[in-house]
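Handout, section B. The chain below has 139 residues.
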Amino acid sequence: MFRRRPEKAPGAARIDTYIGKGTTVEGSIEASGSVRIDGFVKGTLRVDGDLIIGADGVVVASVTAANVTVAGELRGEVNSPGRLDIAPTGQMLGDVIVGSLNVDDGALFLGQCNMKDEVRSQPKVLAAPDDSGNSDSQQ
């Protein structure tokens, strides 16, 4: 009766750079748009748009991207102000600093997660209780 609408994966609409299955890239990749990887990449990835690692993709790298979706395997650190999605087939092995994290059932995440939100990064300071309104005190 009630259905949860599936959320579109970040970057699902447009892919500017595609590294296909059977392709190996070693080194540094800098991209201004979105990147999808279904091959093997080792090195450093700096993506201004979204990074999508397909089910056949393997990435061994330090990653910086707007949003990251992992359906394959990612070994390395992730830094993203947006969202990290780990699909049921995905494996994320490494520490992440992200705005939000979604780990689907069946996914693997081994590492530490730090949330990158300025509001959340500031611990709340609680004020000391005010005893002036205490009804037990004598007047």
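Note. The chain has one domain: 17-115. Compare this with the example in section A.
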